Amino acid sequence: MAGNGCSSLFGLLSVMALSGIMCVEVPKLKLNNGKLMPAIALGTYLGFDQGGVVKSVNKQLANVVMNAIDIGYRHFDTAAIYETEEEVGEGIRKKIEEGAITRDDVFVTTKLWNTQHKREQVPLALKQSLNKMGLNYVDLYLMHWPIGLNDDYTFSDVDFMETWRGLEDVQKTGLAKSIGVSNFNLDQLRRLIKEASIKPVAIQVEVHPQMIQSEIIEYAKSESMVVMGYSPFGSLVMRYGMQFPGPKIDEPILVEIARKYNKTTPQVVLRWQVDRNVVPLPKSTNLKRLKENIDIFDFKLEQYEIEKINQFHNNVRYTLPSFWQNHPYYPFEKIDNPQDNPFLNKRKQ
């Protein structure tokens, strides 16, 4: 009989032990509407290259999701623009069919894309996502960016508060159990909370040792909101096929902390997020790293260790869509030489 955690896999434990699969009980955070969110999520964005969004091949992602469920993951983060919703849903549904979990055991987050920001478009967009996933509801629906775009990717003048009314609509109808935002800056978040009828439960932003997001985290805590952190490893991993400046896996400060707790430096960085009340969203398709990334709930960093890691902060963003920087709701700092818009380039091909 399925339960709500690793206990739901009790009948499989001997098989799992033989195959080297462990199952971690992940703690849950209480949201401001009383619902519970698992304290770590599997990120499912596969990247963006010259051909557009990178897609899963031969059901690789669906298999990763199923492996992740066996290991103990109960929170999956996707988005309409990632083009991974279908396989995320497939992996979850297969595990439900096996009896390993129930739908209530898993927490699914997806996101509204920028081209569907009009209030009346929001429920249609979410229904499309649900159809792809084969699910009746999502646990959390996020506005991916405060930036509205037209179908041709030119700037739309839709106010993000109109979009928020659409998110409130889908929560009221039960298509989403909770709603929130992603990539909002502090001023935008303050305005949203002031004008919203339903308060967001979460904000998802980039968080890693070079972008520690202290102001957003502090403000979110004061409003009983959860912060979800994407790109949690920062410069520890390669990005866009390159190494970037910043702390690496062999960074002495991180190595010292890792040795103390008999952990790896990536595990230390994930625990640093958890200890700062951030839900990290690590990505991996590798079974060994999937196990490593979730095995972070049996130790806790000291405050001075958290502060040591905080000192790597230098305001570096790895997600900086400067091609949108002239949009009135662009949330980040402008730069002198913005990138070409890859969405426009793709449309011209």
TrEMBL record:
<protein>
    <submittedName>
        <fullName>Aldo-keto reductase AKR2E4-like</fullName>
    </submittedName>
</protein>
<dbReference type="InterPro" id="IPR044488">
    <property type="entry name" value="AKR2E"/>
</dbReference>
<feature type="signal peptide">
    <location>
        <begin position="1"/>
        <end position="23"/>
    </location>
</feature>
<feature type="site" description="Lowers pKa of active site Tyr">
    <location>
        <position position="111"/>
    </location>
</feature>
<feature type="domain" description="NADP-dependent oxidoreductase">
    <location>
        <begin position="40"/>
        <end position="312"/>
    </location>
</feature>
<dbReference type="Pfam" id="PF00248">
    <property type="entry name" value="Aldo_ket_red"/>
</dbReference>
<feature type="binding site">
    <location>
        <position position="144"/>
    </location>
    <ligand>
        <name>substrate</name>
    </ligand>
</feature>
<dbReference type="GO" id="GO:0016616">
    <property type="term" value="F:oxidoreductase activity, acting on the CH-OH group of donors, NAD or NADP as acceptor"/>
</dbReference>
<keyword id="KW-0560">Oxidoreductase</keyword>
<dbReference type="InterPro" id="IPR023210">
    <property type="entry name" value="NADP_OxRdtase_dom"/>
</dbReference>
<keyword id="KW-0732">Signal</keyword>
<dbReference type="InterPro" id="IPR036812">
    <property type="entry name" value="NAD(P)_OxRdtase_dom_sf"/>
</dbReference>
<dbReference type="InterPro" id="IPR020471">
    <property type="entry name" value="AKR"/>
</dbReference>
<dbReference type="InterPro" id="IPR018170">
    <property type="entry name" value="Aldo/ket_reductase_CS"/>
</dbReference>
<feature type="active site" description="Proton donor">
    <location>
        <position position="82"/>
    </location>
</feature>
